[in-house]
Amino acid sequence: MSTPLLSVRDLSKHYTSRGTRLNILQGISFDLGKGEVVGLVGESGSGKTTIGRTVLRLVEPSSGSVRFDGTELTALSASALRRQRPRMQYIFQDPFASLSPRMTIGEILTEGLKIQGIGTARDRLERARSALAQVDLPADAINRYAHEFSGGQRQRIGIARALTLSPEFIVADEPVSALDVSIQAQVINLLRELQQRLGLTMLFISHDLAVVEYICDRVIVLYLGRIMEVAPSADLYARPQHPYTRALLSAIPSPDPDARRNRQILKGDIPSPANPPSGCVFRTRCPSALDACAGTIPQLREVAPGHLKACIRDDLN
Predict the structure, then answer these.
(1) Residue 218 in contact with residue 233, Cβ under 8 Å?
(2) Is 6 among the domain residues?
(3) CB–CB of 289/300 below 8 Å?
(4) What is residue 304's predicted lDDT score, i.e. its pLDDT?
(5) pLDDT at site 19
(6) pLDDT over 70 (residue 145)
(7) What is the pTM of this model?
(8) Mean pLDDT computed over 40-56
(9) How many domains, in total, are found in the chain?
(10) Domain range holding 231?
């Protein structure tokens, strides 16, 4: 990989609730190259959304480094961070909650431009119309309100809002999970086309591994705030190395109803971040756990070119 656009090192986030420390992220490190789409997958409660929001400083990290195009974001003042905002945008999961019902679509799309002091009022409206065209919505949508649109159209508006500032990096946080299945493919195809045409770098957060396989170049597998596996997408789906990844992949529905799948059912629920297991955080649900897993926190190590896993076992390759 060339010099990364985004470089995250030892990122951690914890909260304290009623005197109890909740470890949401622990020692997260990864890079995103320019123009790369990296998927972030894992069960609910694994910390996916917290990573997305923390790398953009929508949530403040507890510790660690986040460098964007060589600039350390965690060290920036509020005013300096605001100057970086146009280059980094966020697509939210819920298209219903993320758009103000009291603002027209034109006001929603031009709000960021106005805050950044970009262009005249006429210039900002023109950029808003251009962004609507990029997401295949008509220009007259600019004078309407969010409740007048379907869920899929609202998510297109959310994408357009991100595009108005001409960003280089986008965090797409479960961008299709709130949509009907029939609409999901349309929005995913739109994101893929925009990413390729505009050369966007994207962190794509999802629990749907079939969607991730379609759109992502690499995949990061997360469990209880720690990275379990990182690999190029094709390699991960063909040769998963970590027991958790194998369990996730085994749950992907097959288009062939007669196909036999070796479904691996994980027992129990993901543990509480207030009381994570010792050693490997996945060991309490891992079908391949050893006694030694309780006393050792496995570090990411390369098991094939570009393929890393956090597991002490070598006999699972």
Answers:
(1) yes
(2) no
(3) no
(4) 93
(5) 87
(6) yes
(7) 0.94
(8) 95
(9) 1
(10) 219-253+261-317
